[in-house]
Design a protein that fits this description.
Blueprint lengths: L1 E4 L4 E2 L5 E2 L1 E6 L2 E6 L4 E8 L5 E3 L7 H6 L7 E2 L5 E2 L3 E4 L2 E4 L9 E2 L12 E5 L2 E8 L10 E9 L4 E10 L8 E2 L17 E4 L1 E5 L12 E2 L11 E2 L9 H6 L3 E6 L7 E7 L5 E7 L3 E7 L10 E6 L3 E8 L4
Antiparallel strand pairs: 1-4, 2-3, 4-5, 5-6, 6-7, 8-17, 9-12, 10-11, 13-14, 14-15, 15-16, 16-27, 18-21, 18-23, 19-20, 19-22, 22-25, 23-24, 24-27, 25-26
Length: 321
């Protein structure tokens, strides 16, 4: 794998530069910036051998700083929502920023990890990015160091490894918030692309996207992706969970034992022949379909995210037309 440092991506108001790196292995390339440790591009080839960038990203630093969709970024300390913006740990209640409709804490708060400039170092095993979060940061206890490693292996899998250490008990759940369009970034809707999830159960949410505590079977519902089907096949069904979320924005329980790297999702685009697999060591996978926002290279998009200590996106090319 080659790691190249490209020209700077921009400069923060403080004068701190945002650096940009390209990872290459075989026919696969990825670009990562130090703002948010974000995956900006993920380029593979279609069935004809033509390059296709399947990850959505902004073209300027200002777009990243002004956007609120966390494109490709590492989110933390805690990915997803914490109900009511508080949690009880070791007999102490900690209060966090409520940056989600004024009710809940989302993706680490207003100035979460996706809004920070990470410290990079190119090593033999991949691109390392490090961030130190001080005690009390966004309300969390303890000084926490987070290390994220981006690697492209010999099979063309983009692997993201996470490690965090803290000097106090704290809450930590890291993830990468990438969005994918297997027909190419900015090419249009993903609703016709097929999705399969290696899951028999999902966790329903309330009207504010907070899990109810129930774990329900997917069978007989629009949440059933055990067999591949177009992402939009049932997205407009009269189903309470879809009405509340405006489509899919849910967690599915990944089949198999947590701690083992195993398949969680498989997306396919007939147009390009590109197949994207998500593997994870963790319990669940969040799958989201989002409507367009102000993103220079995006239209209607979908997102598959694996949260945990290690995740991998494997791209494959279909041999059939």
């Amino acid at each position: 794998m080659k790691i190249l440092e490209l020209e700077p991506f921009g400069t923060m108001p403080s004068g701190e530069p945002v650096r940009r790196f390209r990872l290459e292995n075989g026919g696969v390339r990825a670009e990562v910036i130090t703002y948010g440790a974000a995956l900006r591009t993920f380029e593979t080839t279609d069935r004809e051998g033509a390059p296709v960038d399947i990850a959505l990203g902004y073209d300027t630093l200002d777009d990243y700083r002004e956007g609120n969709q966390y494109l490709g970024a590492i989110v933390g300390r805690c990915a997803n929502r914490i109900a009511g913006g508080s949690f009880l740990l070791g007999g102490t209640r900690y209060t966090l920023e409520c940056n989600d409709n004024g009710r809940n804490h989302l993706h680490g708060g207003i100035s979460g990890f996706s809004r920070r400039v990470w410290e990079p170092s190119a090593c033999t095993d991949g691109l390392h990015l490090t961030l130190v979060s001080p005690d009390g940061d966004s309300g969390y206890p303890g000084t926490m160091r987070t290390d994220v490693i981006y690697t492209i292996d010999e099979e063309g899998a983009l692997i993201i490894s996470y490690r965090a250490t803290c000097d106090q008990d704290t809450v930590c759940s890291l993830s990468n918030h990438a969005y994918f369009n297997l027909a190419g970034a900015g090419s249009g809707s993903v609703l016709g692309q097929e999705l399969a999830l290696f899951s028999d159960f999902y966790t329903p949410t309330d009207a504010y996207s907070i899990p109810t505590g129930a774990v329900l079977p997917v069978g007989g519902t629009p949440m059933d992706f055990r067999m591949p089907k177009p992402l939009g096949a049932h997205i407009d069904d009269d189903f309470e969970q879809l009405r509340q979320a405006g489509g899919y924005d849910h967690n599915w329980v990944v089949r198999g034992a947590p701690g083992n790297l195993r398949p969680a999702a498989r997306a396919t685009c007939e147009e390009t022949g590109i197949i994207l697999e998500t593997w994870t060591t963790e319990l669940g996978i969040q799958c989201t379909r989002q409507i367009a926002w102000r993103a220079p290279r995006s239209a209607r998009v979908g997102r598959i995210t694996a949260t945990g200590t290690r995740s991998a996106w494997k791209r494959r090319r279909s041999r059939t037309r």
